[in-house]
Each structure stands twice: as C-alpha cells, then as structure tokens.
Design goal:
By secondary structure, the protein is of the alpha+beta class. The chain is built from three helices and ten strands.
C-alpha cells in the first residue's frame, strides 16, 4: 500500500463488530511489533465493537475497539467501557488517522452505557491520551491471564463519558477478566 498526501482525505470511517483474523493481518501486515513490546506475553480480550478507517480501495488502515467490562475499584464494582487495540497502519502514522479513530471511539463509548472509559497504554503515549481527557490511575491494576492474576505494567487511564459522571473511585483496580 502506498499512500500519498492527496490519497489520505477519502478515508471512510465505519463501525463494525468484531474484527476477523484477516482484518488484523491486513491492518498489521504481519508486523510482529504492531502494538509494541509492552503487551508481549499477555492475552488480550477481544473487543465487541470497532471503529475503523478504510481507504478508497476498502482496505483497513486504522482501527480501535471497545467492550463493556466489569471492574472492582476498592470496595466498588462498576462497569466501564474498555477501549483498546487502537492501531494505525504504519504508512498512515502521523497523518491524523489516530485522532479520527480515537474521537469516533469516544463517541461509541458514550453510547454503550457506562459512565467511564478505561484504557491501557504505553507510558510514552500518556500525554497524548491526557489531551483526550484521560487521567492516570495511580493505584495498581490487576487483570486475569490464563495462569492467574497479574499486575498490568502498562499505564492504566480513565475518562468520564458524560458530564456529571462521578470521579474515579479510590483504591486498587481489579479488571474482571482479560485486559482490553
């Protein structure tokens, strides 16, 4: 795929359900480091819904997913929209494609019900997510893995999805199930 500046404008933003293996291969072109090394060795939860960008030929060039997830924070149990798998094809990185997908993911998350969204990100991406109203969760965050619970090494962040949403509760966070 070779994209030029004038080819970038006609990207179509679409919402789909789960992505297929074929979709992921098309998007990553089998890049073994597509998401960086931070997620190595972890098993991730599939997302139910995705926002995608497709080029003028219908090829997948960016995507991000969302799913509703139960978490325990201190003594409270709440549902959050777990957002993840945000990826842009390497030839479109730095073109604004991530912003389009991220903004569409936020609109999708707002429609799913919970008052909060939660993400895991590489530490170097924290400031980018802060600019989108995400806040760092300072408490330890644990998730399930096939061999038991583990503490996440990636930065965990949250954001309110509607005005008037309560602040994030205090205490350690236990994601129920696999990370997203």
């Amino acid at each position: 795929m070779t994209l030029h500046a004038d080819d970038r404008e006609p990207l179509d933003l679409v919402e789909v359900g789960a992505l297929t293996l074929r979709d992921w291969v098309e998007l990553t072109e089998r890049d073994p480091d597509a998401f960086g090394h931070a997620g190595e060795g972890l098993v991730w939860r599939p997302k139910d819904r995705h926002v995608c960008l497709r080029d003028q030929d219908g090829r997948l060039v960016a995507a991000g997913g969302a799913t509703v997830v139960a978490v325990e924070v201190g003594d409270e149990r709440l549902d959050v929209v777990g957002m993840g798998s945000l990826i842009v094809h390497r030839e479109l990185r730095g073109t604004g494609a991530m912003t389009r997908v991220s903004d569409a993911m936020a609109r999708l998350a707002e429609s799913l019900g919970p008052d909060h969204a939660m993400i895991f990100c590489l530490p170097r991406l924290t400031d980018m997510h802060r600019a989108r109203d995400y806040r760092v969760i300072d408490a330890p965050v644990t998730v399930d893995q096939p061999d038991g619970r583990v503490v996440m090494t990636q930065t965990a962040m949250w954001r309110p999805l509607r005005s008037g949403a309560a602040l994030w509760p205090a205490g350690p966070v236990a994601v129920q199930g696999l990370p997203f």
